[in-house]
Amino acid sequence: MLRGALLLLSAACLAACGNAAPYPDTETPGPRAAGVLTIEPQALATRLEAGEAIQLIDVRTREEFAEGHIAGAINIPVDEFDPAALPDAEGRDRILYCRSDRRSGIAAERLAEATGSTAVHMEGGILAWKAAELPTRQ
């Protein structure tokens, strides 16, 4: 009888464990973890200085863009950001950025979901770029 109860208890525990999520709800990786990466400002600057083929997209407002942006960036505000309507990257890596990295993270999630591939955005946004004393253009 005791042996039967232990077997029943073991089976119940195994069944419960099999249905458990691998992470608590607060730690379950979402779309951002699956398809979005970040790049640090200095790493981006190094790639740009090396002449790597990069399509740099600033997703801030037109007013913010006019106040200063990274040389070579194109402006597509996040409110207008449509992955299907992006200009052809022509073999270049796309890297998105905004003021702090919140809006570029949203745009990168949209891009990753639409393309099924990894999207990259700059960690810390233009604030981090400026804090690293990297140049901007108006």
Automatic annotation (TrEMBL):
<protein>
    <submittedName>
        <fullName>Rhodanese-like domain-containing protein</fullName>
    </submittedName>
</protein>
<feature type="domain" description="Rhodanese">
    <location>
        <begin position="50"/>
        <end position="138"/>
    </location>
</feature>
<dbReference type="GO" id="GO:0004792">
    <property type="term" value="F:thiosulfate-cyanide sulfurtransferase activity"/>
</dbReference>
<dbReference type="InterPro" id="IPR001763">
    <property type="entry name" value="Rhodanese-like_dom"/>
</dbReference>
<keyword id="KW-0732">Signal</keyword>
<feature type="signal peptide">
    <location>
        <begin position="1"/>
        <end position="20"/>
    </location>
</feature>
<dbReference type="Pfam" id="PF00581">
    <property type="entry name" value="Rhodanese"/>
</dbReference>
<dbReference type="InterPro" id="IPR036873">
    <property type="entry name" value="Rhodanese-like_dom_sf"/>
</dbReference>
